[in-house]
Design brief:
Blueprint: H1 10-34, H2 39-50, H3 52-64, H4 70-77, H5 84-109, H6 120-132, H7 135-150, H8 156-169, H9 172-175, H10 182-209, H11 214-229, H12 234-255, H13 257-261
Length: 275
């Protein structure tokens, strides 16, 4: 069997292909909305578009790891025993941020209702929908592959910032659907990127403590889920989110900078050959 030629810059190739896949898929999401397709069709297309990074990584896999099986790579991403202390720490950080944002919104904006969802049934539906249309579809490519590859050449902090920037920029088509223009759009994009990049730092720190992909999936899930629960303008929520997530990321760096963010570069992953 002829082997694929190995990519010289796999992370850059991954980012390019991810965007090339996401843009047309997201256009189909927009078409489904404009043509007034049933809601389930719109939600299905939205979920599929969110998996573009996984699709891109799957397509490129044999050019990145020609000696390894895709199924083995996915299995390895979840094989480390889950450390509940790491999950508890990351969850505590995000629940605390959620509580502080709610307090700020109640005090400064006095909404009629603090929550966007009022029934347990809708809450469960929103939780599952959010999980399928973001965290499950994005983390295999962005964290299990791209972050780990970057840490072979860069410190965890540098790798976090690089991934956070490109992961945030990948959302560009979504920014154009917010309805914001002018200064509001600039504010939204600026604080969105700060939120994403600081969350990327938190993800890297927690993921390096416990190399199980469930960890970044849970962090990603809480990030999206909590924002959608609070009844306030999205641009306002993203602004508060950025402030608190940047503070949390800086705190993590200050607490243990040498071990968490400036540790040794990742050793090259062991390739599992195809029998």
């Amino acid at each position: 069997m002829k082997r694929e030629k190995k990519l010289k810059n796999p992370v850059a190739s991954f980012i390019i292909v991810t965007n090339l896949m996401f843009w047309p898929l997201f256009c189909l999401v927009g078409a489904a909305k404009m043509l007034e397709f049933p809601e389930w069709v719109f939600q299905l297309m939205l979920t599929i578009s969110a998996w573009s990074s996984t699709f891109a990584f799957t397509v490129l896999f044999k050019r990145i790891y020609p000696e390894q099986r895709f199924a083995a790579f996915v299995k390895d991403a979840f094989k480390c025993k889950l450390k509940w202390s790491v999950l508890a720490m990351s969850s505590f950080i995000q629940i605390s941020i959620f509580g502080m944002i709610m307090l700020v919104v109640v005090v400064n904006h006095k909404p009629d209702s603090i929550f966007t969802i009022s029934t347990w049934g809708m809450l469960i539906y929103y939780f599952v929908k959010n999980l399928l249309s973001g965290p499950l579809g994005e983390e295999l490519g962005w964290r299990a592959f791209a972050l780990m590859e970057l840490q072979k050449k860069h410190s965890p902090l540098a790798a976090s910032i690089i991934i956070g920037f490109w992961w945030g920029l990948w959302h560009l088509p979504i920014w154009l659907t917010t309805g914001y223009v002018g200064m509001e759009l600039i504010q939204y994009v600026l604080f969105f990127m700060l939120s994403i990049m600081s969350t990327s730092i938190i993800m890297t720190a927690c993921y390096n403590f416990n190399r199980n992909l469930i960890v970044p999936i849970v962090i990603h899930q809480f990030f999206n889920f909590f924002v959608g629960l609070i009844n306030e303008k999205l641009v306002v929520l993203i602004t508060y989110n950025a402030f608190f997530y940047v503070a949390a990321a800086m705190l993590i760096i200050v607490i243990n900078p040498k071990k968490v963010m400036y540790g040794k570069k990742e050793a090259k992953s062991v390739v599992r050959p195809i029998p």
